[in-house]
From TrEMBL:
<keyword id="KW-0548">Nucleotidyltransferase</keyword>
<feature type="domain" description="MoaB/Mog">
    <location>
        <begin position="8"/>
        <end position="154"/>
    </location>
</feature>
<dbReference type="Pfam" id="PF00994">
    <property type="entry name" value="MoCF_biosynth"/>
</dbReference>
<dbReference type="InterPro" id="IPR051920">
    <property type="entry name" value="MPT_Adenylyltrnsfr/MoaC-Rel"/>
</dbReference>
<dbReference type="GO" id="GO:0006777">
    <property type="term" value="P:Mo-molybdopterin cofactor biosynthetic process"/>
</dbReference>
<keyword id="KW-0067">ATP-binding</keyword>
<keyword id="KW-0501">Molybdenum cofactor biosynthesis</keyword>
<dbReference type="InterPro" id="IPR036425">
    <property type="entry name" value="MoaB/Mog-like_dom_sf"/>
</dbReference>
<keyword id="KW-0808">Transferase</keyword>
<comment type="similarity">
    <text>Belongs to the MoaB/Mog family.</text>
</comment>
<dbReference type="InterPro" id="IPR001453">
    <property type="entry name" value="MoaB/Mog_dom"/>
</dbReference>
<comment type="pathway">
    <text>Cofactor biosynthesis; molybdopterin biosynthesis.</text>
</comment>
<keyword id="KW-0547">Nucleotide-binding</keyword>
<dbReference type="GO" id="GO:0061598">
    <property type="term" value="F:molybdopterin adenylyltransferase activity"/>
</dbReference>
<dbReference type="GO" id="GO:0005524">
    <property type="term" value="F:ATP binding"/>
</dbReference>
<dbReference type="InterPro" id="IPR008284">
    <property type="entry name" value="MoCF_biosynth_CS"/>
</dbReference>
<protein>
    <recommendedName>
        <fullName>Molybdopterin adenylyltransferase</fullName>
        <ecNumber>2.7.7.75</ecNumber>
    </recommendedName>
</protein>
Amino acid sequence: MSTDIRIGIVTVSDRASAGIYADEGGPAIEAYLARALTSPWTPVTRVIPDDRKLIADTLKALADEEGCCLIVTTGGTGPAPRDVTPEATEDVIEKPMPGFGELMRQVSLAKVPTAILSRQTAGIRGKALIVNLPGRPRAIGECLDAVMPAIPYCIDLIEGPYLETDPAVIVAFRPGQKPKT
Ligand SMILES: Nc1ncnc2c1ncn2[C@@H]1O[C@H](COP(=O)(O)OP(=O)(O)OP(=O)(O)O)[C@@H](O)[C@H]1O
Ligand SMILES: Nc1nc2c(c(=O)[nH]1)N[C@H]1C(S)=C(S)[C@@H](COP(=O)(O)O)O[C@H]1N2
């Protein structure tokens, strides 16, 4: 079992990558994970435009070369012509994990009726779990609160590192194990 926990954080936004606005999404994901995880980990961050091949190449590099066990993307999940993050994710994953998108849309719908416009998905590439989040920075906590309890066990199952969480923030669920409270 590796102890070097590396997590990819990818902002997919034409405007943030061009410097038209400051990227708030990547830092919000990093801040969320810094609160939720007690295991030491290293963020590997990227800010890139909405280009299908570039997104796919970035996800591949983070999984295969950077050794990230988890890669969280933000942005480019909607219906606009340039929104291609789910397609790029599907280009590189070996196993789709549709439950992530289903649950995130379900919880998001309680916050905003346009939650159904996000095509956010997730999947496994090698020993990495890739999870898409919508671009709006406030969507990050809304979505991660829902799926984070299942992420450490998912990473156990793909033979990644053991992620410990702060139970005051996220109670990680591992079947057969008493949850740490
Ligand atoms: N990375 C980000 N940092 C800060 N604000 C963001 C970011 N991504 C999106 N937003 C905000 O959320 C709104 C909706 O996101 P939208 O779907 O238009 O952007 P996107 O498709 O993710 O990025 P872009 O249109 O620049 O490629 C934006 O108008 C912006 O205010
Ligand atoms: N939790 C949550 N989900 C959300 C939103 C949000 O504000 N909060 N915005 C929605 C909107 S308005 C859009 S267009 C889609 C896609 O956003 P994206 O293209 O920025 O990824 O995500 C949806 N999902």
